[in-house]
């Protein structure tokens, strides 16, 4: 297959996926408001012991610093006990007549006393919550001086039982100008009806319709009826659900699949005492640019909900968080990501675009095999099976088959980009051929380009194929569930390993055909030695440098696998470099592309274009496959906007071209043959290059078969 056909096939694939991809791109630019929030329990710590004027002053300072929202959670029985609104009573130690006689019944029970006359309704709301939870085991009584009591028979611990939202507190925060985010309880003990009523009352009081899940979502592990009923309640009341971006609370996929268009990505920052101010700001902005985060929450470090976050820390962190937003974003009330569910015909076109890439890669790779008919059969069967899996995913709306097809298409495109570029660098390629116009008119003037010109054209073709594959993969992820990070691209580690292995196998097959052609051209008629003797010779040919290079390569592969994926670990120096690049370039290029894979692609193409050694060029091509696979993976981060992925790829391609050119120049200088006096001989190197290009061995003028890649059809 000619490079021109590959370029045209990629153009066709892009045109096929445009309807589905366009739906995603439009949705990515509808929500541009970002808000910074603090946890209300921390605000409560700052205002403890202060009067109304002192509390108002603290709230004004927090609001003027840039904090636009406060996260308010339900208060439990323990919270009200600690605040003095409720008081546990030990019946055995109470004096005679101190508590109502109804509270002194025998048996295990917990007795709680409220404040006289229940001025803010806390006691009544506690009775309502406990009655919903324990039923007729709850009894109440009031003393003549209007002190209310409640008794829960058979209970041993009520500390973690939620009582509900503090309506008075919600009213105060709303009057202070804050956008209130209602935190859902991690454990619902009083039933769905009670929770829905609490949310309705709290939302009406606070004027807010945003709920947050920092822990397990309600009813996620319970009955499906409760789950469906509660999600339907949230949708019917126009509630938006905020979900964290760096971890997945239990039940997030179930909720997200039932609430498309109602999800807000949230970045939770746990602030330690020795926090890095600049690092936190850069990483928060990175979350806004790369992961679509629209709500940033500051909270105290640790799992203890009573841990405190100093007011001075918030006043220090919030101004830079709200002052220098990424381009296109602004401070305001966050909006949910628009629902993205392309029509069936648009998703079918996306599948067709993926099959175009898969067919080109399969025919190219299997074209290196000797038995062409068998290769064609295998290719057709593979493409057909992938198409059937994609159609099954469309019909049944199952996620896993669709993800598997996405992985296959991404891997195939990463391999195709390297093979097409190598073929373009090896053969007589014209610029008109790369644009797909060859054969439509007169051939352009000029002879075949040498060296840099051919390598640059081949590099452009390889990058075009890789970016096309990434765009197609991004179209596969054009769904709300994928764009909020809950249906990710599967097989990231396999994507980084598979294409290099396939390129290496292709190179070995190519070398075997070249070897057979060389022996046939030399008139060799002796039978081939047995496999045992071949293996012995291969083992004896191994040198310590080969073992060292293999060990280094395996160590690099292991490191790449450990730090790959959305949660891969990265060392501290790399995190610092990431922060620097993010500040300088708006969005940083990925390391595996800019500093490893794409520079190796430039080296491989230059060696091939100049008639360099077969093995060295293809070793560099194997490394280059890591870069093209990483380019595909850039677009496989479905939570990253497509525009950001394109900008990141442009940076990576530019860095790869510059670094690859420098590496190729250094390699050419190191491998130049010196004269007897120690100086490097330009004429000798030039003669050697001419000898290789003409297919001569350089020793006694013996003719060997040409080693150019174009002798093997793609």
TrEMBL record:
**Compositional bias annotation for Low complexity:** 686-703
What is the top-level taxon of the source organism? Answer: Bacteria
* UniProt feature, compositional bias: Basic residues: 676-685
Keywords, alphabetical: Membrane, Transmembrane, Transmembrane helix
List all membrane-crossing ranges.
344-367, 374-394, 400-421, 458-478, 490-511, 546-562, 591-609, 616-637, 649-672
Q: Does the keyword Transmembrane helix apply?
A: yes
Report residue spans for region: Disordered. 675-714
A Pfam family in this protein?
DUF5693
**Per the database entry, which stretches of residues form a coiled coil?**
none
Q: Which InterPro entries match?
A: DUF5693
What's the protein here called? Answer: MFS family permease
Q: Provide the species name.
A: Actinopolymorpha rutila
């Amino acid at each position: 297959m000619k490079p021109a056909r590959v370029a045209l096939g990629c153009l066709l694939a892009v045109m096929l996926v445009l309807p589905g991809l366009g739906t995603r791109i439009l949705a990515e630019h509808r929500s541009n408001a970002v808000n910074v929030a603090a946890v209300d329990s921390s605000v409560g710590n700052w205002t403890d012991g202060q009067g109304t004027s002192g509390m108002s002053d603290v709230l004004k300072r927090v609001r003027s610093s840039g904090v636009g929202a406060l996260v308010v959670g339900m208060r439990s029985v323990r919270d009200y006990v600690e605040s003095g609104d409720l008081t546990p009573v030990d019946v055995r130690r109470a004096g005679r007549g101190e508590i109502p006689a109804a509270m002194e019944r025998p048996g295990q029970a917990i007795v709680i006393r409220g404040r006289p006359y229940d001025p803010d309704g806390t006691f009544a709301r506690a009775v309502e919550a406990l009655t919903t939870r324990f039923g007729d085991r709850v009894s109440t009584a009031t003393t003549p001086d209007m002190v209310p009591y409640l008794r829960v028979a058979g209970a041993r611990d009520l500390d973690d039982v939620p009582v509900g939202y503090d309506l008075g507190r919600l009213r105060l925060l709303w009057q202070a100008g804050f956008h209130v985010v209602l935190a859902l309880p991690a454990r619902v003990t009083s039933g769905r009806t009670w929770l829905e009523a609490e949310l309705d009352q709290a939302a009406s009081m606070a004027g807010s319709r945003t709920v947050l899940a920092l822990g397990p979502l309600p009813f996620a592990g319970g009955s499906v009826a409760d789950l469906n009923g509660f999600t339907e309640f949230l949708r019917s009341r126009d509630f938006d659900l905020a979900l964290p971006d760096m971890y997945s609370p239990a039940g997030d996929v179930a909720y997200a699949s039932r609430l498309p268009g109602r999800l807000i990505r949230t970045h939770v920052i746990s602030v330690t005492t020795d926090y890095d101010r600049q690092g936190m700001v850069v990483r928060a902005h990175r979350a806004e640019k790369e992961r679509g985060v629209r709500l940033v929450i500051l909270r105290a470090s640790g799992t203890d909900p009573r841990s405190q976050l100093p007011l001075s820390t918030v006043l220090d962190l919030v101004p830079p968080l709200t002052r220098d937003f990424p381009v296109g974003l602004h401070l305001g009330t966050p909006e949910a990501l628009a629902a993205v569910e392309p029509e069936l015909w648009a998703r079918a076109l996306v599948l067709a675009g993926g099959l175009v890439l898969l067919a080109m890669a399969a025919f190219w790779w299997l074209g290196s095999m000797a038995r062409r008919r068998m290769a064609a059969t295998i290719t057709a069967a593979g493409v057909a099976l992938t198409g059937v899996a994609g159609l099954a995913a469309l019909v049944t709306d199952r996620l896993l088959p669709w993800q598997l097809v996405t992985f296959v298409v991404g891997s195939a495109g990463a391999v195709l980009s390297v093979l097409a570029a190598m073929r373009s660098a090896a053969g007589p390629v014209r610029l008109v051929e790369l644009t797909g116009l060859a054969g439509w008119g007169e051939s352009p003037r000029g002879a075949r380009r040498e060296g840099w010109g051919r390598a640059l054209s081949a590099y452009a073709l390889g990058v075009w194929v890789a970016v096309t594959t990434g765009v197609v993969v991004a179209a596969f992820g054009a769904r709300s569930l994928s764009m909020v990070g809950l249906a990710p691209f599967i097989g990231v580690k396999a994507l980084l390993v598979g294409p290099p292995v396939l390129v290496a196998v292709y190179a070995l097959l190519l070398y075997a055909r070249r070897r057979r052609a060389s022996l046939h051209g030399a008139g060799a008629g002796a039978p081939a030695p047995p496999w045992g003797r071949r293996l012995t010779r291969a083992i004896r040919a191994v040198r310590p440098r080969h073992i060292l290079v293999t060990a280094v390569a395996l160590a690099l592969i292991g490191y790449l696998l450990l730090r790959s994926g959305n949660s891969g670990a990265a060392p501290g120096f790399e995190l610092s470099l990431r922060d620097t690049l993010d500040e300088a370039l708006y969005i940083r290029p990925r390391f595996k592309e800019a500093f490893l894979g794409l520079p190796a692609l430039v080296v491989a193409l230059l060696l091939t274009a100049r008639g360099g050694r077969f093995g060295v060029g293809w070793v560099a091509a194997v490394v280059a496959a890591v870069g093209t696979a990483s380019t595909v993976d850039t677009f496989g981060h479905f939570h990253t906007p497509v525009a950001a992925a394109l900008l990141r790829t442009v940076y990576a391609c530019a860095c790869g071209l510059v670094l690859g050119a420098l590496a190729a120049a250094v390699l050419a200088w190191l491998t130049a043959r010196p004269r007897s006096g120690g100086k490097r001989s330009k004429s000798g190197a030039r003669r050697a290059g001419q000898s290789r290009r003409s297919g001569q061995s350089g020793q006694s003028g013996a003719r060997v078969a040409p080693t150019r890649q174009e002798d093997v059809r793609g």
